[in-house]
Amino acid sequence: MPSLFRFLFICALIAGVIYGTMIALVTFVNPVERDVTIRIPSERVNKPQ
After folding, report:
1. How far is CA 4 from the centre of its chain?
2. DSSP per position, 6-41
3. Domain locations in the chain?
4. Handedness of CA 27, 31, 32, 35 (dihedral sign)
């Protein structure tokens, strides 16, 4: 049983580190807004009949 508790503790610790990293990214990183232009070839829009 002690090895099961150790395994569960390590899994919970890893999950906590991942969750903490996600919270830190959401808190400290601000996205930069910019215009996006995607060129679509006319062959894809006007398909030959």
Report:
1. 30
2. HHHHHHHHHHHHHHHHHHHHHHH--PPP--------
3. 2-40
4. negative
Cα separation, 3 vs 22, whole angstroms = 29
The residue to which tokens 């398909």 are assigned: 47
Distance from C-alpha of 22 to C-alpha of 35, rounded to nearest angstrom: 26
Give the pLDDT of residue 49. 63
Average pLDDT of adjacent 10-residue blocks, the chain of 49 residues: 92 98 95 90 72
> Alpha-carbon distance 49 to 46, whole Å?
9
The rounded Cα 15 to chain-centroid distance in angstroms is: 15
Q: What is the pLDDT of residue 3?
A: 94
